[in-house]
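Structure catalogue
Derive tokens from sequence
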Amino acid sequence: MRDSQLNAEVLLNLGFVDVGKWQPKGDSIAYVLDGADAPASEVLLDAPNALYAFVGDDQVVYIGKTARSIRKRYVGYCRPGKTQATNQRCHRNIKAAIAEGTEIRIFVFTPITHLRYSDFEVNLAAGLEDSLIREFDPPWNGRDRGHPISEDAEREEVEEAEFGESGVVAVADASEPRASGQAMATFSVVLGATYYEKGILNPGAEASEYLGKEGDPIRVRFSDGSQTVVSKINRTANRNGAVRVIGGNAQIARWFQKNFGEGDTVHGSVVDPHTIELIAG
């Protein structure tokens, strides 16, 4: 039986962020990012190992997890394949709720700072999913003998690769994407021993003037096409308030070690307030 006290506020207190809502788009649906900071929310869509929830009238109606990214996962909800039971069910329920006048909000949880047990990284999103589904009992999740289950338990093969992502999202009040190669600022980082081994990244005071505020997500891209890292802006670690990138540092360290030697200089650019790009040597 669902606990009436387990509402959307509980998820917000856990660290979920209300980023947007579902809306009709022709005979399909799309999501619009209309939260307090749409450009920052847009970065969260690229984070892997994320949890998300759909909320209607303060009730949590669905909880899901993706190992890829929310951006890729939601393609299946917008244009579900014929054999995708979960995608079909959520697509149908979202459209029905909207038709009845219920706004379906989108909450996301992207644990940028990862937990570790001994030498092993713990996937917090995966660990929370089953517990949250069990406690919230969301009505749109699948059922096994009357109990709600996760998408993984349904063993559904997600086929987002069948579709392109264009037209899936309309970002409200977001600025136009900056053209490739057009930088707001450039910077360089000398890879001292700690930076090289730990993946510490400080773009410097000048570049920091063009970056977002404390706690905002930031996307770290790599010129060689390596997987993008979604991290967090920290402006308290450095006394002058310059940005330090916190989160995903192990992946950044591996990229440093693959492309540079200790003591080398890495060059980068600020693409927008929530995106930096590092240039491979």
In short: Residues 185-279 form a domain with the At1g16640 B3 domain fold (CATH 2.40.330.10). The chain has two domains: 8-171, 185-279. Residues 86 and 114 are 28 Å apart (CA to CA). The longest helix spans residues 85-99.
